[in-house]
What does this fold into?
Amino acid sequence: MGTQGKTGVSALSLAVLGLCILANARPELAAWPWVAMAGVALASAVALRAWLGRRRVLDGPLNIRVTTFVLAELMLPALVVIAALAAWLTGLSGVLDAAIVLSVTLACVTWL
It folds into this structure.
């Protein structure tokens, strides 16, 4: 995936964080669902990048790097998608809050 994959993930991370700032600064815009949707797009990009590079990482010995990779780039995107889907299906604000928190966490983790 290379540089374009990293650039796309970075742009989506900035979109999630920017929408979060916008939603917090201007509550009348109701931008919180857009944060969750941008989080799903980010989760898809991160999971695709991780899935394509999984053999390179998982072929080595089990260490903290491999564990962090699995948690941050394979499990966290899945949790973001599940939470956003649950928020969309149930319409509960608590579930939307969870999707937003997971989206922002994923956006922050992708910068590390």
Observations:
- Residues 57 and 65 are 8 Å apart (CA to CA).
